[in-house]
Amino acid sequence: MSPRSLGLLWLYWLLTALAVGHASAELQHSPSEKSQQQANSESGPGLHLVRVLTIATSPPQLVSGFLAPLKCDGDGSLYFRQDGLDAVHKLNPKGQQVALFQAAANTDKKIDGVAAFALASDGDLYQVVFPHEFDRYLFVYKSDGTFKSAIKLNPGFVWSPHALAVFPSGNLLITGSEYDRDRKAAMWPFTGIFAPDGSLLKEIKLEDDETLHDMAASGDARVTLPQDTHANLAISHTQVETASDGNGYLMRWTNPTIIYGISPGGEVVRRVKVDPGEAGYRPAAMHVYQNRIAVLFVNAQTRAKVMKIVDLEGHALATYDEPVANGKTPGAMLGSSFACYTENPTRFVFFGADDDDRLQLWIAQPR
Q: What is the pTM of this model?
């Protein structure tokens, strides 16, 4: 990959590297938790993640930096957004573009921006849309990119949605930030279950909400950036997916990362931690396959990567790292743009680029 592409792909991680430190005491494992996770991890295969296949995309697209989340569906199709562009692209497993989801083309509203998206079990795509007003919307599309509807979200206050999942019932699990009047910044964590019409059914209080809010409110470098001390990265970088048990799994951007299992009715059924083993790592992406969760951790300074596989209760199943050549981790081997995880066989799909910045699919497996 060219130096320009690497700079784009890693700019975010280099910036956040300046902000990372040891996790706060409130977020640390208890000694028993550490011992259990270490024992589970040491029982794993200790394999590397190796790129086994590279697929060129069609038509060729220039890479301008990927934006979370990156997704895949049950058919193996892949979904991504790029920096500076408002469209979600859908590729089939052969790398061919088969659909495009564009908010601005389907509304008369002035669109300030678009954000996270989620896939429903019927193939529909839901995307957070920020029009030039205080209201926030979800735009819903059919799997071929055809616009279906706009849902106005009504939590009862000004907020910024960050991540979502769609239950088979049509209810929505959405997490975001509520406007903080004291600091005039969106720093209060908010999570709720919304009806298909956008009305709030239930607010969910998560165990670490106050701790993460207080860290951001004090300008703590572990969850903010020097150039934006009002941000709360632990909340804004949240990712959510559903699992085979019917629950949504919500991951906070912390070390160790915290994952909550939340039922369609809004009950917190479990809270687990996944520890990368070193303080310099942060979760780049999380993907769920049936009853397993894969979390890719990246060290912003060294670019080293660790993939942790756990079950839905947080028990460690496997740990994979990236091969090291000549004492250095090759940053272009896999990249941090982790898009899909499947089993039977164990397989991971990343978005990457060739030396001319043209988009590729990088398929990796444990070796």
A: 0.86
